[in-house]
Amino acid sequence: MSAQAAEGGLRNARCVVTGGAGFIGSNLARALLDEGAHVTVFDNLVSGKRENLPVSKSLRLVEGDIAHDPRLPELLSQADYVFHLAAQVGNIKSIAQPTQDAETNILGTVRLLDCCRGTSVKKVVYSSSSAIFGEADRLPIDETHSQNPASFYGLSKATGERYALLAARLWSVPAVCLRYFNVFGLPMEDNEYTGVISIFFRRLREGQSLWIYGDGQQVRDFVYVRDVARANLLAAVRGRPGSLYNIGTGRPTNISELAHIMSEVAGRPAKIVFGESRAGEVRRSVADVARAQSEIGFSAQYDVRRGLSEVWAALASGSAETSPQEQ
Question: What distance in Å separates the CA atoms of residue 24 and residue 121, rounded to the nearest whole number?
């Protein structure tokens, strides 16, 4: 169900998407355009790309840095809805670049919330991450689960959440937080920081072995990017200010199982090779999505196999110009 069908939707709404030229942001921008919204993408284009965005008279791109650009206050003051996805993404990358991680993910978020204070913005949807939880005490992980981030990225997203929730309480900024679990889909660059799905598909295309760090029994909740974009729309029109929601499928998939599913989807048998575990990665992560289902009407429409099949079909047909990404 779309936000439009649920609540009259976002037609003609003025929407700002920070980080909107990136992986999830570009999918969200397209979903907003499909709803009839007017979209301004604000992105520094460090990891995002202009070509990720559709050509539309209802979309404009403003290139700038979330933590410092002087145009941001005026831009946000004119918005009906703000979707904040601008971030340095990645557990491993944050360990290597903690200062940049904090500047973008914490300072940038604080500045955005401050700019929204006293405006007529109807909702600020903040993109958080399951990385805030660290190693799970129990599965599935609900919104009240303890937080023990295993990376600076997880810490920065948890800090951004706290600022967003306090801004809702202290400043009446109508902020809602979405905690994404392992998002996958198209498009984005293929580099050393991309997720396991991106790497596996690239190696399958090249006829190479699939490398797994650890024993392959690590459990994840892989959620398709189209579902994540839809969750943002629902949060914008239904989310209660000061609330937070887990966004996933609620279904576990271990990495060895993932490798076999991807090999089957691609129709390309591959050797699986196991290596040493990596720092900053958790063992188990699966979302409890009951709150998102009951309060904003979100449930994933894609399971892992269906989402992977759609991505592979796009890659095989040549309609995907870039490699898939998982966050």
Answer: 22
User: pLDDT per residue over 230-240, tens digit each?
Assistant: 999 999 999 99
Q: What is the pTM of this model?
A: 0.93
Residue range 84-135, pLDDT digits in tens: 999 988 777 788 888 888 999 999 999 999 999 999 999 999 999 999 999 9
Q: What is the pLDDT of residues 179-200, one digit of tens each?
A: 999 999 998 555 544 588 999 9
What CATH number does domain 3-182+225-248+286-301 carry, 3.40.50.10210, 1.10.530.10, 3.40.50.2000, 3.40.50.720? 3.40.50.720
Give catalytic status of residue 224 as yes or no. no
- pLDDT one-digit tens code per residue, 148-164: 998 899 999 999 999 99
Which residue among the candidates 153, 163, 180, 302 is catalytic per the annotation?
153
Which residue ranges make up each domain of the chain? 3-182+225-248+286-301
Q: Which residues pair with 127 in a beta bridge?
A: 178
